[in-house]
Amino acid sequence: MVFSRNKGGTQTGVALIQAIVLSAVLSIILLFLNTSAKKNVEAAQTLQDKNQALVDLYSTEAQLLYDLFTNEHVSGEYAKGRWYFWGKPFNMDETAVVSIQDQAGLLNLHQLAERELIELIERLGYDKAKAAEVAHSLIDWQDSDNDTLPRGAERQAYQFGPRNKPMPELSEINWLPQVPFELRETLQDYVTIFSPGYFNPANAPDKLLAATLDVGKLSDPVKEFRLGRSSTKDFKDVSQLETDEGVYFFTSKHLAYKIAVTVGQSTMAKQMQVVIDPYSDSAQNTLKVLSINWGDKGLINEKLEDNE
């Protein structure tokens, strides 16, 4: 009788263990199915967000181009808020951030102003010796002679190069070993190969304008002028800027705009270099697209100083 009871107890114990194991296996399967379903839902949501962000980006771009064609290109108030032409970001709506950079407000890479470029590179965090080396190397790379600037480099410094002609694209800066790696991308926010042929200091990014004026910080009157609240004469009086035939205070037709749209956790970004001429005699010349970049190249630079 004792043996029989033990046998029954053993069978009951085995059945209990089997039930526990089966329950654990079913729990693992259910957990896997739940996790898999959750991931599928998240993936579907991400895809939906990306598609919505892309749709919103195209809608924002269409609205921006319409505004640029129908409004004066002057920094300050416009129909939907405030916009700027020196690369300062502004919101078009809850999801879209836009920046517009007048190419007249950047240094012409093909005709670099040595003093301003050196001053700019110093303001970007480099000492004067390194700033001069970068500036002189960029100038030597493009000029037609073989005369080396004090801190520059000519043929003897390269296996291939220098070009001895204007750079055809900004990315060629990467070919110069004298330019620190981290400076190569940053510098491209301050120079252009699409210059309209003159310089507009009012539309220069903060650090470049400060370098041009050779001041530590932009004064309130300068900021007021950039926002369209004072006259050109006021700006000249305060800035003590020496103007010549190559300096004009009006926004050019050559613009670069960046649009970044975020929906959920997804961001779509685009950058365009364009020439906008609403008054062109030829319909096909009202908008010329010079370059297009998607992704990281189109992301908004949020590190710009506040000029409000």
Set out the fold topology.
Blueprint lengths: L1 H69 L5 E3 L2 E3 L6 E2 L4 E7 L4 E2 L5 H10 L4 H15 L38 H7 L3 E2 L13 H8 L6 H7 L5 H8 L14 E10 L2 E11 L10 E8 L14
Parallel strand pairs: 5-6
Antiparallel strand pairs: 1-2, 3-4, 4-7, 7-8, 8-9
Helix pairs in contact: 2-3, 2-5
Helix content: 40-55%
Number of strands: 9
Structural class: alpha+beta
Question: What is the terminal-to-terminal distance?
Answer: 95 Å
With strands numbered from the N-terminus, the spatial order across the biggest sheet is: 3-4-7-8-9
Overall pLDDT level: 83
Task: Report the total helices.
Answer: 7
Strand content: 15-25%
Keywords: Cell inner membrane, Cell membrane, Membrane, Protein transport, Transmembrane, Transmembrane helix, Transport
Main location: membrane
Transmembrane segments: 12-33
Pfam families: T2SSK_1st
Structure explained in plain terms:
With 308 residues, this protein is an alpha+beta fold. It has two domains: 64-106 and 195-307, no CATH class; 109-190, Orthogonal Bundle (Ribonucleotide Reductase Protein R1, domain 1), CATH 1.10.40.60. The protein contains seven helices and nine strands; from the N terminus they run αβββββαααβαααβββ. It has helices at 2-70, 114-123, 128-142, 181-187, 206-213, 220-226, 232-239; strands at 76-78, 81-83, 90-91, 96-102, 107-108, 191-192, 254-263, 266-276, 287-294. A five-stranded antiparallel sheet has the order 3-4-7-8-9. Strands 1-2 form a two-stranded antiparallel sheet. A two-stranded parallel ribbon has the order 5-6. A hairpin with a 2-residue loop joins β7 and β8 (266-276). α2 crosses α3. The model has no long low-confidence stretch (mean pLDDT 83). This is Type II secretory pathway component PulK. The chain crosses the membrane at residues 12-33.
